[in-house]
Hints:
Helices cover about 65% and strands about 10% of the residues. It has one domain (about 20-60, about 110-280, about 315-425): Outer membrane efflux proteins (OEP) (Up-down Bundle). It is of the alpha+beta class. It starts with a helix and ends in a 5-residue tail after the last helix.
Amino acid sequence: MKIVLAVFFIIAFTSGTGLSITLDEAIKRAVDGSYLLKEQKEVVNSYRFSYISTIDPYLPRVDIQSSYIRSLNSSTSVSSYSNFSSASNAGSSLDAYTFAGSVSYRIFDGGERYAKRKGSYSLLEREKERYKGIHQDVLFNIKSAFYTALGSRLVVEKRQEAFSTAERIYNLTVARYREGITKKSDVLQAEVRMTTSKIDVQRAEREYEKALEDLKSLIFMKVGERTDAEGPLEAPAYSPHYESLVERALRLKPEIITQEKEIERLNMAYVEKRSAWFPRIDAELQQTRQDRRFFPEGRSDSFMINFSFPLFDGVGRHYNMQGALSNVNAAKQRLEETKRTVGLDIIKAIKDYELTLANVSLYKELVREATTTFNQLLGEYRVGKGDILSLLQSEKDLATAKENEVEALYRANVALSYLQKVAYIYDE
């Protein structure tokens, strides 16, 4: 019986306890389950297959062809359709069966094959960099949601502390009122503050619940599942250096490399358009069999070198080249704009990060001062000195300072996460 009760107690206890999740676990779940990352991975695979297929023009081509010809003119024999001069085997038959096989290879195409293959490779590399950029966004979103949830949980704890303190002041005031030391208005003032603190706790709990829903959505937990953000919330120790961050971002940031790969692709598109100004040279080895039988035996072998060049086909070749060149120039301007935006985002992120660190220091000092003031006023109030309004205001200031310190801490971590995002320093 005792064992059954113990098991029941354990089940009841664990069923009401939420699963605590750390930042590392949240990141792992978010990355493993991200639909955006899975989608982009399939896009990368698609471009990889397209790149592999561009090897075909470099390989010889083998074709076979079979046909049946029926002459509708009684005076025409199979020899009229034959590729060889002797048609002794055909006689005057009106039926002709043909089987042909050929092996061809393009010797020269003005760089068209190279341009298509190189351009396809640039597309593949571009999509790989986009995958890194999406991965970067996923990391920032999960870090931001985690620190917000963790900060919201600590705000709940701070407000619970404030409620406990307000409740102690209320009980102290009621006891002093019963002894005839304080007035009824003092009791009412303390009760109002205690009730206000209770309302603040409920509001903080609702904000924490909403923050948890954001976090659970990013780590693919169901709405009904319970969890808590777990981990230390401390001031970041990272010291950014603008010049080194910008220099590194211009070399490694996915947005920059993506645009560089786009320029490479457009350059290859220009080479492809330019190839229209060069001749095409093809070599072909062909064997043809044709006579009146279903399995023809009349055989003709040939080897051909084909040379083709359009002397005039309008003005399209020229203007297609000009359009491709304009696309390259436009992409270069886009690259410079991207670089400018990256530098601006980094300096703004550094300023925000430094401001949050300054706020953390200021609120830590404010908490220390508010704690000293509150303890002094509480001690005076206990011995009959001071008034209830000063004590309640001091307690409220202390509670606000503690909340602001927590908010400054998680905002500093979010600001660092954003700086990591815009400067691409996740691997450090």
